[in-house]
Every structure is written in structure tokens, then in C-alpha cells.
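Researcher: Here's a chain I'd like modeled. Treat it as a single chain, no partners, no ligands.
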Amino acid sequence: MAKKTDYGILDRLYKTIVDRKSGDPEKSHVAKLFSRGTGKVAQKVGEEAVETAIAAVEKNRDETVLESADLLFHLMILWADAGIKPAEVLEELEKREGVSGFDLKKSQLKKELDSQSKD
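Model: Modeled as a single isolated chain. C-alpha cells:
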């Protein structure tokens, strides 16, 4: 049985996003994004990722914090669109704790190759 963990602000924000999913697109940024479809939600995540990267390259710490918050917010909208809960992502991170990035990449590559060979 999975352990119940409280992720605080992430859980609260995710609940708000899910609650606004079916809201009025004229009154809610979240509802508007959902109404425009997964492609638009994904595009917004990409835009926020680029803005975060630019702020970091410019060594603008305050802007990097703001853009990171925007990125995480829009990523959570994408998760909600896909039916993914924050706990699932955080549990995946917990599984990876202490695992070498090189080893993780090798494992992922092996899974991809195994999957392709079955097709």
C-alpha cells in the first residue's frame, strides 16, 4: 500500500487546478488553458521552461524564481490534464534518490530498446 504523504502547497495548488478545470474560461486562466486542449497546455509549459532558462542564463535570480514558479504551475496543469497527481511524480523522484544519473539513463535506454524489440 502506498504511503500517504502531504506535499503541502503542491497538493493545495493541484486541487485548485483540478477544481478550476471545468470553470469559466472567461474568468479562469486554468479553465481557458484546459479548454484549448493538451497541445496548448504543453506549449505553455515549453514557453515557461524557455523563460526560466533565459532568466537563469542572464543570472537574474529573482526572475528565475518567478519563472520557475510559473513553470511549475503550468507543469501541474499539464499533469492534471493527463490525470497525473503530484504524489506520483514526487514518488518517482524518491525512487531515484541516490541513483546515479548515468545509471538512470542506461536503465531508461535499456527499457526503450527492449520495448522497441517487442514491436
